[in-house]
């Protein structure tokens, strides 16, 4: 019998907090804290935030689950991407080049300290155990947000002074204590059935059909080409690709091309196995105008990062001179303006004039 249960209240699909993209695979569970100490900041308050204000303020952020002292709430399905571990650089190689596309995010609400916080943390450990088992993962596949990006989250598992504020001896013992609880729940069994064979995801890589995603496209010129789990002939063969087929390319390393989450194919030393065509760099328009009519306006930021705070909001009809088109930290296009600030290049917000 499950000790706790999970409520589900999904936020609407939208580009800021629930992009609706499928996870490429599930390789890890990441634990966070909400960092919001207000008593009202429970799981339902976070559902409201991520279905409301976060979208209106164009904030790329979210997580799959929010856990407080008396309930666990799922707001994004397990199989879909949330924006909870994005960064420029990552501390681990184990989650590929974009951990958001292969991890599930669990946030512990910190709206209370003391017994209610302990209850929220216990419920979080139970949920992490359930998710690890459900996806055929082990305790080593449980990450702090800190382990993935270096962010001090959950802060009581990273910083001793915060650990003491939440009743722990120090951050290390808080984190190892949490992992021990997760392990205990995994051993006891949660409500979720464990997957018998964890090999299954890697034997069936999801290679998406070609389109305008990734950094370019690849055509298989060889009559057949192996897709391997690393950019080396030592890599395990995941699948054999047919000659003449086309794939999106997400990363290039020497003569190796990454065509899926962890699937690599080689063009061969003479380049005669695969033909790579990078996507053309978009031409930047000289000037763009705000075409978004919402009262809140469009956020202009100091960095090419949708999670950076807005420097200002610009309103319908305002015109700006464009310096160039750049990739945001989230991978989508932004206009770099002559002023040095950055704004979305989505054409329902900003359009060429
Ligand atoms: Zn976090």
Please explain how this structure is put together.
It is a single chain. The protein is 19% helix and 26% strand. The chain has 353 residues and is of the alpha+beta class. The protein has three domains: 6-188, Peptidoglycan recognition protein-like (Lysozyme-like), CATH 3.40.80.10; 200-278, Roll (SH3 type barrels); 287-352. It has a seven-stranded antiparallel sheet with strand order 17-16-20-19-18-15-21, with no helix packed on it. A six-stranded mixed sheet has the order 1-4-3-5-2-6, sandwiched between helices. α3 crosses α6. The N and C termini lie far apart (62 Å). It binds zinc ion. Zinc ion binds at residues 32, 145, 151, 153. Zinc ion (ZN) binds at residues 32, 145, 151, 153.
Instruction: Please outline the major beta sheet.
Output: 7 strands, antiparallel
Report how far apart the termini are.
Answer: 62 Å
Secondary structure category:
alpha+beta
Order of helices and strands: EEHHEEEHEHHHHEEEEEEEEEEEEEEE
Tally of domains:
3
CATH class of the largest domain: Alpha Beta
Beta-sheet strand percentage? 25-35%
Q: Which ions and ligands are bound to the chains? A: zinc ion
Low-confidence parts: 192-211
- CATH-assigned homologous superfamily of the largest domain: Peptidoglycan recognition protein-like
Reported by name, the CATH topology of the largest domain is: Lysozyme-like
């Amino acid at each position: 019998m499950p000790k706790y249960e999970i409520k589900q209240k999904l936020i609407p699909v939208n580009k800021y907090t629930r992009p609706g993209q499928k996870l490429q695979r599930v390789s890890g569970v990441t634990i966070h804290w909400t960092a919001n100490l207000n008593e009202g900041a429970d799981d339902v308050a976070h559902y409201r935030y991520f279905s409301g204000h976060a979208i209106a303020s164009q904030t790329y952020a979210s997580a799959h689950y929010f856990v407080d002292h008396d309930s666990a709430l799922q707001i994004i399905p397990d199989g879909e991407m949330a924006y909870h571990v994005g960064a420029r650089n990552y501390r681990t190689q184990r989650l590929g080049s974009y951990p958001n596309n292969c991890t599930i995010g669990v946030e512990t609400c910190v709206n209370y300290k003391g017994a209610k916080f302990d209850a929220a943390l216990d419920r979080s450990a139970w949920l992490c155990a359930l998710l690890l088992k459900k996806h055929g993962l082990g305790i080593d596949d449980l990450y702090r947000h800190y382990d993935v990006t270096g962010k001090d989250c959950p802060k009581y598992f990273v910083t001793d002074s915060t650990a003491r504020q939440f009743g722990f001896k120090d951050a290390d013992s808080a984190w190892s204590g949490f992992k021990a609880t997760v392990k205990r729940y995994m051993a006891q069994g949660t409500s979720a059935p464990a997957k018998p064979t964890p090999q299954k995801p890697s034997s069936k890589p999801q290679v998406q059909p070609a389109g305008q995603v990734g950094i370019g496209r690849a055509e298989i010129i060889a009559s057949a080409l192996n897709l391997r789990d690393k950019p080396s002939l030592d890599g395990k063969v995941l699948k054999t690709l047919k000659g003449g087929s086309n794939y999106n390319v997400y990363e290039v390393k020497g003569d190796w091309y990454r065509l899926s989450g962890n699937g690599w194919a080689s063009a061969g030393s003479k380049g005669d196995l695969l033909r790579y065509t990078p996507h053309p760099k978009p031409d930047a328009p000289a000037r763009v105008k705000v075409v978004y009519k919402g009262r809140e306006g469009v956020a202009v930021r100091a960095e090419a990062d949708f999670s950076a705070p807005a420097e200002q909001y610009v309103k319908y009809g305002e015109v700006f001179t464009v310096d160039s088109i750049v990739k945001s930290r989230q991978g989508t296009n932004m206009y770099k303006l002559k002023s040095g600030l950055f704004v979305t290049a989505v054409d329902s917000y900003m359009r060429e004039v």
